[in-house]
Q: What sequence folds into this?
């Protein structure tokens, strides 16, 4: 990485004071740029921690420890991140003028039956991509498509932002399913996949640890990497994910009705989510959906009290016999 001067650092840190990404984790910013990861992962590891210090003071910080290469790595991450901010000022008008006839991404959405108004809060995006979208008031997949087309001609995109745009541009159904609840070979978006994607946003170690805590049968490698979790840790993760589950149930009203009917007819949560074809996320989706619907019932909603059936194939995959 090129060495930055103290003058360059002063310019970058001055600009970053006005960036919405000043309080985004440096780990997320590096991931979104597809550059070497930032080695420190504390909650305070954000640009705002460093930008109040001049270059000489920066080198004296414990995280930098007089290492110019570490300082250059930090400055490089911030400089590249600014590339997302700088072109945005005059972009909004251009985005609003973009039409589906000119935008191949919107054409893909139409062909696959993906609603342009689908909220990005239900998409599987990294924190860095969410911050970029939030900075421009982009809240739906259609707005994301327009923003992405304009950005692609102005800045070098990285991470899941780039991957999502590539998948949508080329109609890559498997790639689209990574960040949207799309089922390959079908049209539209689906509730099981939407709830399944919520778990996909967790680090893999948290996914397998939760699934193991729920009694899922894991592969040898997943079982070995799973860590014991306390009740408090499980409840904390669940509480965060349940907010998104409730939002998904509100959006997918037809899907929610289909799930309730499935349960009322004697079906199981496991059977409903088997389309995910991924045992770890299936186990978490089963737990989240059952908890969410029980909470609805407690608040007076119409959610049936359904006992999760055991035995046979599904019990071997999702629970104790």
A:
């Amino acid at each position: 990485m090129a060495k930055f001067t103290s003058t360059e650092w002063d310019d970058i840190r001055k600009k970053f004071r006005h960036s919405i990404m000043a309080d985004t984790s440096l780990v997320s910013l590096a991931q979104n740029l597809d550059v070497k990861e930032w080695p420190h992962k504390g909650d305070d590891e954000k640009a705002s921690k460093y930008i109040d210090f001049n270059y000489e003071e920066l080198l004296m910080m414990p995280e930098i420890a007089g290492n110019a290469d570490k300082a250059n790595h930090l400055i490089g991450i911030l400089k590249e991140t600014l590339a997302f901010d700088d072109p945005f000022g005059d972009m909004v008008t251009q985005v609003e003028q973009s039409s589906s006839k000119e935008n191949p991404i919107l054409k893909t959405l139409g062909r696959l039956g993906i609603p342009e108004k689908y909220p990005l809060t239900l998409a599987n995006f990294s924190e860095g991509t969410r911050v970029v979208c939030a900075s421009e008031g982009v809240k739906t997949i259609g707005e994301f498509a327009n923003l992405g087309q304009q950005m692609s001609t102005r800045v070098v995109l990285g991470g899941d932002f780039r991957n999502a745009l590539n998948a949508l541009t080329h109609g890559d159904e498997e790639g689209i399913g990574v960040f949207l609840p799309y089922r390959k070979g079908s049209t539209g978006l689906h509730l099981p996949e939407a709830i399944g994607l919520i778990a996909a946003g967790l680090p893999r170690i948290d996914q397998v640890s939760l699934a193991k805590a729920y009694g899922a049968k894991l592969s040898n490698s997943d079982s070995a990497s799973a860590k014991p979790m306390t009740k408090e840790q499980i409840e904390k993760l669940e509480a965060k994910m349940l907010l998104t589950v409730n939002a998904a149930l509100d959006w997918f009203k037809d899907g929610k009705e289909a799930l309730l009917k499935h349960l009322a007819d004697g079906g199981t949560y496991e059977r409903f989510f088997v389309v995910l074809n991924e045992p770890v996320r299936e186990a978490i989706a089963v737990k989240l959906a059952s908890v969410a619907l029980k909470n609805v019932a407690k608040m007076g909603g119409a959610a049936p009290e359904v006992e999760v059936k055991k035995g046979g194939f599904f019990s071997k995959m999702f629970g104790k016999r």
